[in-house]
Amino acid sequence: MDNIFSRLELLVGAEGIKKLNESRVIVFGIGGVGGHVAESLVRSGIGSITLVDNDTVSITNLNRQIIATQNSVGKSKVTVMEERLLSINPNCHIETKEMFYLPETADEIDLTQYDYVIDAIDTITSKIELAVRSQNQGFKLISSMGTGNKFAPEMLEVADIYKTSICPLAKVMRRELKKRRIKSLKVVYSKELPKTPEVSTEKTSKRTVPGSTAFTPGCAGLIISSVVIRELLGM
Fold first, then answer.
1. Rounded average pLDDT over 22-38
2. Which of 28, 22, 18, 34 is nearest to 67 (CA)?
3. What's the whole-model pTM score?
4. All domains of the chain, ordered by start, with CATH?
5. Widest pairwise Cα distance in the chain
């Protein structure tokens, strides 16, 4: 009998579907990258997923974030994402955590209970914390580098952090992880030179907000989800 995973089962078999359904994954950051990761994982049969983000949907998210619509502006990102995912697979177990993941809050989540941890966070401090804990605690982690100011998703690659180049965020991460003696970190990054914004960008108290397209963040998210699914299946 046909079901929502019938086409995937043709590729991975019944045992593959069972393996994915029994897997637990956590996604940090439900934005342009993380939103596409979460949806792709649920469409791929992941049985349990935890969504972590403390932000709400903004009008500026409409050009790239899969959960952003005129009706979702102002709503909690994890709540909107949960509703969307359950509309795809009502049997998926979804947990939401409205929180900023930082060194001082990191102990609130036991990451060793997950089969895969996905970092789609913008904050460098948070990304470093996840990388350090991954090495110390032994859980699988993949981290998204910068997709802002990028126009060529075909230049995205999967690599170890110490084999990256061009990407400004990856450069900072290489330096900081080396200081902390982190041996490796699987990342998705782009070799494309960032485009200089045509107009002055909005500034927050901490950083300049980059420009973004509808396609590069989403492609990064789909690449991440493909890596996670293949590894969970032992491919």
1. 98
2. 34
3. 0.94
4. 6-232 (3.40.50.720)
5. 56
